[in-house]
Design brief:
Layout lengths: L1 H9 L14 H13 L5 H12 L5 H11 L11 H7 L5 E9 L5 E9 L4 E9 L4 H17 L9 E7 L2 E7 L1
Parallel strand pairs: 3-4
Antiparallel strand pairs: 1-2, 2-3, 4-5
């Protein structure tokens, strides 16, 4: 009995698993072809169209499993994928963060920070006192780049460029 059990477990000729065998090859072909012809359609729409065309009730999850296993999007799309694009741009990718700070005198200041993702250095930042409207946010967002261009003489790697707006007038400078 023990030898028979191990022979069944470790033999290369296994018995087929019990249960449903999955969708037919014709259904798989129909789902994949429908997705290739209508690449913007999702799983519920493909399931609905197959049910209408072939009078075959099919669940959207079955369509999802078929597409996950059998469908690869074509390379006819214009340009690289997002992952490739971000990988190529990793040394020139900047991120911006806008947040609110309260001063010791309980005045509100909005700070916009621009950081280089590759070197993890601060490119510049802008500070706006009071409420931020569209014009102030635009001025705050272009200020770090204008200061960076104007202050090229301070090329030390530890230099942090800053700009602050007091009553609408920019105050430029740099910290070392």
């Amino acid at each position: 009995m023990c030898k028979k059990k191990y022979r069944m477990l470790f033999s290369p000729n296994r018995r087929p698993k019990p249960g449903p065998k999955g969708p037919s090859a014709e259904l798989i072909h129909a789902v994949v072809e429908m997705k290739q012809r209508n690449h913007r359609w999702g799983c519920p729409r493909i399931a609905e169209q197959i049910a209408l065309a072939f009078n075959l009730p099919i669940d959207k999850d079955v369509v999802r499993r078929i597409l996950a296993h059998h469908y690869w999007p074509g390379r006819d799309a214009t340009g690289p994928s997002w992952l490739t694009f971000l990988g190529h741009m990793k040394d020139s990718l900047w991120s911006m963060d806008l947040f609110r700070c309260e001063s010791a005198t309980l005045r509100t200041h909005w700070v916009l920070v621009v950081i280089d993702q590759y070197t993890r250095r601060i490119i510049g930042f802008g500070i706006q006192a009071g409420a931020v409207d569209g014009v102030a946010l635009c001025r705050c967002s272009t200020a770090p780049f204008a200061v960076k261009a104007a202050c090229r003489s301070t090329s030390a790697p530890t230099t942090i460029l800053f700009i602050s707006f007091t009553n609408g007038r920019p105050i430029c400078g740099s910290w070392k």
